[in-house]
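Progress note, sequence design subtask.
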């Protein structure tokens, strides 16, 4: 009897999941931008590691993705 009276509700609405997936995609893009730049020979140093893409753009992209993800979690779908 008690089970019929209580209706199961999802914690998040559809829009929350969409925003969450976008945030995860942005985080993934940031880690892809961070990849590479190493040297094939371990005895040779490559300056390519310290370019703009790996030092500034990729970490900023990851942080923006985390911000989007936190927004998706905190967004109240009932007040939309």
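Output:
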């Amino acid at each position: 009897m008690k089970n019929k009276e209580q209706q199961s509700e999802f914690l998040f609405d559809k829009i929350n999941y969409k925003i969450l997936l976008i945030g995860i995609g942005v985080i993934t893009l940031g880690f892809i931008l961070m990849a590479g730049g190493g040297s094939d020979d371990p005895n040779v140093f490559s300056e390519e590691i310290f370019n703009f893409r790996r030092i500034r753009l990729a970490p900023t992209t990851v942080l923006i993705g985390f911000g989007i993800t936190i927004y998706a979690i905190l967004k109240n779908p009932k007040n939309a």
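The longest helix spans residues 52-74. Work on this subtask will continue into the next period as scheduled.
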